[in-house]
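A favour, since you know our structure tokens better than I do. Would you make up a two-line entry for one protein for me to read? Write everything out right here, beneath this request.
=====
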Amino acid sequence: MCGCELHANRSKGGFMQFGYEGKTFIMFDKDTLTWVAPVPQAQISKRKLDAIPGYNQRKKAYLEETCIEWLEKYLSYGKETLLRAEPPEATLERGKTEVEDGMEMHICRLDGFYPREIDAFWTRDGEVWEEETFHKSVAPNADGTYHYWLSIWIDPKERSRYRCHVEHDGLPEPLDLALKEPTNSKSNLGIIISCVVAALVLVGVIAGILVFFKRRQGGYKATPTSDKGSNSSDQGSNQAA
């Protein structure tokens, strides 16, 4: 097995090793240009490989030059996919509350991020807090991104002291999400009832105005009809006379 590494500062790394029955049998040290035998059975192979003229130099050249060239070529082919960085969508949810001790659960959900590596943890007063915390393994989504969540049990009286801290390559800067205070359900219910009552009153007022104008219009139409009938009666009387 062999491989190479190219770091952000352009430094290079590489390894080459062989195994036997699930254990490392012999490995190459490119800095000293020698083979290392971690087990006695590999001593013979070590001496043979080290004795081949120019063999170790060629292996070092492969790890630091040829392998790096292929690595950069593969990265250029899949650059849009391999080097993309999509930030996580972070949300905080409040879970259940234990009746016995009054402790409440809060969940920090992170979804749609890439690459897979993410650093997320709970803090209390700015310090990392591991007590009563739980973490789920990072899992893939159908679109190639990943999701992750972590939870914590806290005393509701200390809610303002906790934060969900998130670091990821897709974020311009780390996130610190504060826990949300619960909404006052009684207050919200009062607001809703007030709005409903106000709406009903408004509908009643509008309906009353419409009925009032409709009746007035009906009264105006009845008067000309009565006058016309009176005139017709007068004309009939005159003709009879």
User: Anything to note?
Assistant: The helical segments are 43-51, 55-77, 79-82, 185-240.
